[in-house]
């Protein structure tokens, strides 16, 4: 896969970096990010809410579910605390494989994703559109033991794929889950029109104008990603309401569903 960086086209990882206050973005990324903020003024807070969910979910999986391996697909530009930092704070020997298709993410991952001595991290330059290329990658097979439970993390990434894609996003998730051991977990966040259809539609239009696919999905469609799995309480819930450190004043201000489920 080519590692050439095209700074003239907005990339979701760099747009997300801008929302989180990062500096690893370019004019095309910032232009789309600002258009999205015009559409949804709370967009920066939503990005932060997704990041906070990621930390809570990983902490739950490591501390309560005993998971010691993680596969983070669509990881984005490293932003502390990263998955391995959260997991290894609970279990120093935890192992994490990060996956993204942005060469800038690759460059930063190589420099920043240093693991504790007892644990291990690896980065795969790959695309969720080719899930088998992720599973077959030597870095994954060398880092994770798929005979043991894995926490599969798909946070704010499945919205970039349409139902008509081949494979479609539901098939992508199923392909990644299929070889994982029983007792593995799936964690997802996904934007939705359910909380504010008008603002969400404006965000979709802004993304499409910049050549970025954005597919918000209603709750029933997000729940479909967890078919055949056992949902962890509180089920598919607003991202701010999934096991929060403090109850949110209004969980509907972040237009995302979130959930974690166990593979039986």
Summarize the helices and strands and which ones pair or pack.
Elements: H1 12-19, H2 27-39, H3 43-63, E1 69-73, H4 83-90, E2 95-100, H5 103-112, E3 120-125, H6 131-135, H7 138-143, E4 151-155, H8 169-177, E5 185-191, H9 197-209, H10 219-224, E6 230-231, E7 237-238, E8 256-262
Parallel strand pairs: 1-2, 1-4, 2-3, 4-5
Antiparallel strand pairs: 5-8, 6-8, 7-8
The chain-level mean pLDDT equals: 94
Report the sheet with the most strands, covering strand number, pairing sense and barrel closure.
8 strands, mixed
Order of helices and strands: HHHEHEHEHHEHEHHEEE
Radius of gyration: 17 Å
Q: Give the CATH architecture.
A: 3-Layer(aba) Sandwich
Low-confidence sequence ranges: none
Indicate the percent of residues in helices.
25-40%
Domain count, please report it: 1
CATH fold-level name = Rossmann fold
In a few lines, what is going on in this structure?
This protein is of the alpha/beta class and 264 residues long. The chain contains ten helices and eight strands.
Descriptive report:
The chain has 264 residues and is α/β, with parallel strands linked by helices. It has a single domain, classed as Rossmann fold, CATH 3.40.50. 38% of the residues lie in helices and 15% in strands. Helix 1 packs across helix 2 and helix 3 runs parallel beside helix 4. The longest helix is centred in the first third of the chain and has 21 residues. The radius of gyration is 17 Å and the shape is globular. It starts with 11 loop residues before the first helix and ends with a strand.
